[in-house]
Amino acid sequence: MARVLIVDDAAFTRRMLTDMVGAKHEICGEACNGLEAIEKYKLLKPDIVTMDITMPEMHGIDAMEEILDYDGNAKVLICSAIGHRQKVLEAMKKGARDFVVKPFQKEQILDAITRILQ
What we know:
One of its GO terms (biological process) is phosphorelay signal transduction system. This protein is α/β, with parallel strands linked by helices. The chain has a single domain, classed as Rossmann fold. It is built from 5 helices and 5 strands. Strand 4, helix 4 and strand 5 form a beta-alpha-beta unit. Helix 2 runs parallel beside helix 3. The longest helix is centred in the last third of the chain and has 12 residues. The radius of gyration is 12 Å and the shape is globular.
């Protein structure tokens, strides 16, 4: 069972991810923007982070880069809208371990987490 930090600006999406991922893993925290994600990562030290790209305060890619600067072994799963193909590719080049496209299914998320943790 992994400890997961859920990062998304939409409360509905955070809730949905919590329900999906929480079936097999421990949700150790949530963040609603990139700045909060960095703070929570440092405080909670999760095994994996699900990260939205487009958020207020700081985008997910920038937050991911700061998290990776802090911990080069951080594992980030990008959870992005279908229209963000270029941003997803950018995130993968900058260190994201995998991605899923919204709207996603429970098995997609859980399979991606399993791949990343192996």
